[in-house]
Amino acid sequence: MTDVRGGVYPFCRACTASSTAWRAPDAATRLSGMGSRFYGHRDVCPDCGSSVRTLYSTFLLIPVAFRGRFRIIRTGGRSFVGRRLLDRPAAVPAYSEEPPPSEFKDHPELVDATYEQAEAHWAARDSAGALPLYETSLAACEKVLRADDPATLQVRLRVAQALLATGDYASAIGWFELITPQLNRVFGADHKLTRIAVEGETGAQLMVGGPRAEMKLLSELVEQDEQTLGRQNPKVLRTRAALGRATMFADQLGAAVQVLEMTLADSIEGLGNSHPDTETYRSFLLEACEAADLRGKRKDRELSAAARHRRTLAPKAD
Ligand SMILES: [Zn+2]
Asked: Is 121 within 8 Å of 129 (Cβ atoms)?
């Protein structure tokens, strides 16, 4: 597939701008006679090949309710990725997007040619050429800047985008899961960079399929990297955290708590207790505990209570 930079992969820029992220509902209601079906096939895009289709809820295969219009790209067999069409293309935000202060200016040694070279490759749609240069640039940033310094976060986002564009979905999801909450906190939810991360994450998840397919892909990567890099390696931590998140979204809440607690413990050992990534993994664990308390079975709630106790997280609110 060609690299359609500028849009949310695999959609082109124009199709991305006229639509919004959407995850197809699970087709698990077939027994009840309820389902959904796309009708029509028009406005085929010459750039990305997507077409506009209309989704209806069906009952015994008969369309009964209009659900919306979507841009759809088939990804083989009966699977597809889709984006919901907007009535009007998203407006450019009117507020200023001044980045928060960075320590970058205090480190003249970071201003080298690598990042500019990476940007040149990226602009020329050569994601595979850009990726190792972004990674080099990021390693230099992380040596002297905080992991959640605005400058570091921008390079982290580029690495995630380049991984997505080169089709390494598992590694891309690991990065997007980690940096989306960090970008959200540092830049705000409405900032362009945060929105790029949210779109990128959704795009990567769409390419993989549902949370179960994501769990399989991520656990394979964890297993493979753990052998060579060790459990406390930042990449292994990222992938395992994303695996914990996917496990939570697959509603396996007790298992999610266990995976995320292991991630947090390894991150405290490997990166340190107050490292920004450790903070993010701690918030993931807390979120999984809350989900287990709220929707879990008794066993899930017990695992949550034990993890809260061991990790001195706030106990369950009554
Ligand atoms: Zn298109």
From this structure: yes
Nearest to 261 by CA among 239, 240, 236: 240
Query: How remote is the CA of residue 55 from the centroid of ligand 1, in Å?
Result: 19
Query: Is the pLDDT reported for residue 246 higher than 90?
Result: yes
Sheet of strand 51-59, all strands in order from the earlier edge strand to the far edge: 19-21, 80-85, 62-74, 51-59, 34-42
> What residues have CB less than 8 Å from 253, skipping those under 6 apart?
288, 291, 292, 295, 296, 300, 304
Rounded Cα gap, residues 113 and 153, in angstroms:
19
Contact 309, 283 (CB under 8 A): no
Taking a C-beta distance cutoff of 8 angstroms, is the pair 204, 169 a contact? yes
In CATH, 104-208 is 1.25.40.10:
yes
Same-fold call for 104-208 versus 211-310: yes
Domain 211-310 has CATH 1.10.10.10: no
Mean pLDDT, range 138-153, rounded to an integer: 92
Q: In angstroms, what is the span from residue 223 Cα to ligand 1's centroid?
A: 36
What spacing in Å lies between the alpha carbon of 218 and ligand 1's midpoint? Answer: 29
CA 116–ligand 1 middle distance (angstroms): 28
What are the residue boundaries of the structural domains of the chain, listed by start? 13-85, 104-208, 211-310
> What is the Å distance from ligand 1's center to 19 Cα?
11
pTM (2 decimals)? 0.72
Helix (H) or strand (E) holding 288: helix 276-295
Q: How far is the CA of 73 from the centre of ligand 1 (A)?
A: 9
DSSP result, 52-120 = EEEEEEEETTEEEEEEEEEEEEE-STT-EEEEEEPSSPPPPP-S--PPPP-GGGG-GGG--HHHHHHHH
CA 265 to centroid of chain Cα atoms: 22
How confident is residue 90, by pLDDT bands cut at 50, 70 and 90? very low
